[in-house]
Write a structure and sequence with these properties.
Helices cover 52% and strands 10% of the residues. The strands form 5 sheets. The chain has a 3-stranded mixed sheet. A 3-stranded antiparallel sheet has the order 4-12-9. The longest helix is centred in the middle third of the chain and has 32 residues. GO terms for molecular function: heme binding; iron ion binding; monooxygenase activity; oxidoreductase activity, acting on paired donors, with incorporation or reduction of molecular oxygen.
């Protein structure tokens, strides 16, 4: 006879004990570590509610993070984020100083999140040290050789074919298709025909993968992937990665004038390097620029006087010529509109966390070694201590106080780790907006869900991606008349 180890306990009592044990585990996981309790801490329960309800980053920043930081009079706050306690910086100059500290390095991210499984670790975004320097050199050189203005112009013409003589267009969806084709054809040398075939298999697969990853509960608590693994989603991610590997194989056989072909010329790059850099450039270069374009055209449509001012400048500088890089040195107001749009609705809201082996000081607050630190760019761009009337859309701020505001503008990150494709993105935006305003007038519909303010969809990458932005377009009678 087998002896009973447990005393006689009823099933309800067992369930109670297991529930108490689970609550104890959760309590210990969510408790602020003792060595960080001196740092002003954003209240946990409102934060968890925000995560689990699917509130987007920029709204959480405006509703919770910045009011708390202002009340505490601090430039850094401690937050529970991505399953860890993290210091987030809400002031751009402090962020630059901390993240450019020579002792800082990227924090190794846990394997739990499918987000990291998708983009990998062997890329310019996630690597560090000598590996990052090598990737950075290669990426900058490849992108420098491929600023494809002619390709941007061609894709804009295809976009005009879709808009036709005008009418209502879901601009947020169309801008995603435009940027997907721009990145795919110039970075990968591969045409997904997202503009021509929006229901194409790759485009649909990409959206399904991103939607599956972006589960609020799994983003807030990455360890759920260990407790309740999403095997079907993991298989979907792996299948998507396999598609990129197939494209790389094809590109080896058929090189062209694209970033991948330039990468193949580097003998130190491995297959994992090629794969991970291709994926991260594709996702980063596509989604972030699509979000920026959705925002910029929304603001132009919402403010007709501003739109007309930009149009006047574009006709004065470009006339009816195809856009060239040299043109945009003489379009200060267009450039200011793009900057202000990227400030107001920052495409990427938070930098990858970094850690240091040393203690770091911000005023009277000492951040202990090995504490994750990130710059919250959305908070930095809406901080009332930094910007005058940050809730107002005011492109003139970049013309009135160009130097000061340019130093506080961190939409592409800070320091040497700024986005390597920033010029690619800016020229992509300039070409589309300049050509669009020569061809069409844009109006925000009276029944727009964005009538009062721009609304973003939930993103596992903490991106600002407006959804359902309908714009009414009306073709200008003649390209020579305003």
């Amino acid at each position: 006879m087998i002896p009973r180890i447990w005393p006689s306990v009823s099933i309800p009592e067992v369930l109670i004990l297991l529930s108490l044990a689970l609550l104890l585990v959760i309590y210990r996981a969510l408790r602020v570590p003792s060595h960080l309790r001196h740092i002003p801490t954003v209240p946990l329960w409102p934060l968890l509610y925000s995560y689990l309800s699917g509130e987007v980053e920029e709204q959480r920043v405006k509703r919770l993070v910045l009011p708390f930081a202002k009340a505490q009079g601090t430039d850094v706050v401690l937050m529970y984020c991505l399953g860890d306690w993290m210091v987030q910086v809400v002031e751009p100059k402090v962020g630059k100083r901390l993240l450019e500290d020579p002792s800082m390095r990227k924090q190794q991210q846990p394997d739990d999140m499918l987000l990291w499984r998708l983009i990998g670790r062997n890329n310019i975004f996630m690597s560090d040290g000598e590996t990052w320097k090598r990737h950075s050199r290669i990426m900058h050189e490849a992108l420098r050789q491929t600023v494809p203005m002619e390709r941007f112009v061609s894709l804009v013409q295809t976009t005009f074919d879709i808009i036709g003589d005008g009418g209502r267009v879901c601009w947020s969806e169309l801008s995603h298709r435009y940027t997907l084709d721009a990145v795919a054809t110039t970075v990968m040398g591969y045409d997904f025909e997202a503009l021509a075939k929006p229901e194409g298999s790759f485009v649909q697969k990409y959206h399904k993968v991103m939607a599956a990853i972006a589960s609020p509960a799994y983003v807030a608590f990455p360890s759920l992937e260990r407790w309740l693994p999403r095997r079907a989603v993991r298989a979907m991610v792996d299948d998507f990665i396999g598609d990129f590997c197939t494209i790389l194989d094809e590109k080896r056989r058929n090189p062209g004038n694209d970033v991948i072909t330039y990468m193949f010329q580097e003998p130190e790059m491995t297959q994992d390097d090629f794969r991970d850099n291709t994926i991260v450039l594709f996702i980063g270069g596509h989604d972030t620029t699509a979000g920026a374009l959705s925002s910029a055209v929304y603001f132009l449509a919402r403010y007709p006087d501003l739109q007309e001012k930009v149009r006047q400048e574009i006709f004065a500088v470009l006339g009816n010529e195809e856009p060239r890089i040299a043109h945009f040195a003489n379009t200060p107001y267009l450039n200011a509109v793009i900057r202000e749009s990227m400030r107001y609705n920052t495409p990427t809201n938070v930098t990858v966390p970094r850690i240091s082996d040393n203690s770091l000081a911000v005023g009277d607050i000492v951040i202990p070694p090995n504490t994750p630190i990130a710059l919250n760019m959305a908070a930095a761009h809406h901080n009332e201590e930094v910007w005058r009337s940050p809730g107002a859309f005011d492109p003139d701020r970049f013309l009135r106080n160009a130097k000061d505001d340019a130093n506080n503008w961190v939409s592409f990150g800070v320091g040497p780790r700024r986005c390597p494709a920033r010029n690619f993105s800016l020229y992509e935006q300039r070409v589309l907006i300049s050509m669009l305003l020569r061809e069409y007038r844009c109006t925000l519909p009276e029944d727009s869900i964005h009538r009062d303010h721009l609304k973003n969809g939930f993103s596992a990458f903490a991106l600002s991606l407006p959804e359902g932005v309908d714009i009414d377009f009306a073709r200008i009678a003649s390209s020579n008349t305003l």
